Each structure stands twice: as C-alpha cells, then as structure tokens.
Automatic annotation (TrEMBL):
PANTHER family: NEP1/MRA1 (PTHR12636), RIBOSOMAL RNA SMALL SUBUNIT METHYLTRANSFERASE NEP1 (PTHR12636:SF5). It comes from Dorcoceras hygrometricum. Belongs to the class IV-like SAM-binding methyltransferase superfamily. RNA methyltransferase NEP1 family. Pfam families: EMG1. SUPFAM superfamilies: alpha/beta knot. InterPro entries: Alpha/beta_knot_MTases, Rbsml_bgen_MeTrfase_EMG1/NEP1, tRNA_m1G_MTases_N. One of its GO terms (biological process) is rRNA base methylation. One of its GO terms (cellular component) is small-subunit processome. This is Ribosomal RNA small subunit methyltransferase NEP1. GO terms for molecular function: rRNA (pseudouridine) methyltransferase activity; rRNA binding. The keyword Cell cycle does not apply. The keyword DNA repair does not apply. It is found in: Nucleus, Nucleolus. Its main location: nucleus.
C-alpha cells in the first residue's frame, strides 16, 4: 500500500476523498486553455474538501509535474500565499469564504453535475446566456460527492455519461472558444 493511502487509513480518513491529482489536472487544463491565453479567464477559485478556499491568478505559471505541484500546495497551506519571484505579486492566495463575495454581481453561475435533470448541449447553452453577464462555472474536481449547489443559478448536465472533471472542462472551454471565435 502506498504511504499516503496508509497514512489516510491510519487516521480514519477515506483515501477516495483525497484526490488532489484531479484538482492538479483540472487547474492545469484551465490555465492552458485558449480562453485563458486570450485573457478571458478572469478568476479561478478552488475549494478543498476541508473548506479552504484559494484563488489562483489566471497568469500564474504552476509546476507541470504533480510532485512539484503538491509541494507548492503544501507551501500555500502553510504560508497562505505564494508570491511571484521578484515582483511580490501573490499568485496564489488563501482567501476567506464564501466564494460568492468575489463573484461578479452581473453573472450567471452555472453548476455542473451528471445528476442534474437539465441535460443541455453546452455549445447551444452558452449561446443563450445574455452576453452582458460574466459566466461562472462550478465543476467538481473530486472523485465522489457533488458541488455546492446553494449559490448556483442553473444546474446542468452536459452529457448522458458521467465525465471526469477535465473532460467536463474541455466541453466548457470548447463551447466558449467557439462562442467567442477563439482559434
Ligand atoms: C468525476 S465527476 C464527480 C462525480 C460525482 N459523483 C458527480 O456526479 O458529480 C467530476 C465533476 O465533473 C462534472 N461532471 C461530470 N459528469 C458530468 C455531466 N455529465 N454533466 C455535467 N457535469 C459533469 C461535475 O461537476 C462533477 O463534480
């Protein structure tokens, strides 16, 4: 048994609830997207299983290996921020809950779950949202459990299949890239 799994079991925690690898993939995917490259990703927030909320600046360049990413996360949780070398800008920062206080007022907050009864074609769906509204997407970067539904205004499923977080993000970013004509 791997060391981390043994540690979690010894401390009576369920290893299935500790999947920072999913968050790693998801964050990397979002930062690499053309939506971000063109500057249309305005903010990225991550909430841990324990309820710690942190913000990642869209122009942050995070480690590309999982091992170095894990090291950075440990540093973030200890120091509460990660500063860019030289400039002093906080690229990652632990912030106070709830996340809603940071979201734009004029926005459409869209939650994603396979269990939603509202099955939509993402491409058509983003086309129907008033373009004066900022779009907020809430996707679960975990293996089990559901996203917080309390503040989302729309709760949609985008496939009849249960998808991985990264695959779900690919459908969202592709729909936006088409909507905004980003090549
Ligand atoms: C591995 S899934 C989590 C599984 C969890 N049992 C669930 O159904 O939400 C990761 C995330 O991808 C998103 N997701 C997966 N399949 C989806 C679907 N068919 N429609 C919309 N979102 C989906 C959800 O946000 C989910 O939290």
């Amino acid at each position: 048994m791997a060391g981390k799994k043994r540690y979690l079991l010894k401390n009576k925690r369920d290893p299935a609830e500790y999947r920072p690898d999913i968050a790693f993939q998801a964050i990397q995917y979002i930062l690499d997207s053309r939506v971000n490259k063109i500057g249309r990703l305005k903010a990225l927030y991550v909430k841990t299983q324990q309820g710690i909320l942190f913000q990642i600046k869209p122009h942050a360049r995070l480690p590309r290996t999982y091992k170095r990413f894990s090291g950075l996360m440990v540093q973030l949780l200890q120091k509460l921020h990660i500063t860019a070398s030289g400039k002093g800008e906080k690229l990652l920062r632990v912030i106070k809950n709830p996340v809603t206080q940071y979201l734009p007022i004029k926005s459409r907050k869209i939650g994603f779950s396979h269990s939603s009864e509202k099955l939509v074609k993402m491409h058509d769906y983003v086309g129907t949202v008033n373009s004066e509204l900022d779009l907020v997407f809430v996707v679960g970067a975990m293996a089990h459990g559901k996203i917080d539904k309390d503040y989302v205004e729309d709760y949609v499923s985008i496939s009849s299949f249960p998808l991985s977080a990264v695959y779900c993000l690919s459908i969202i970013t592709n729909a936006l890239e088409q909507k905004w004509d980003i090549l």
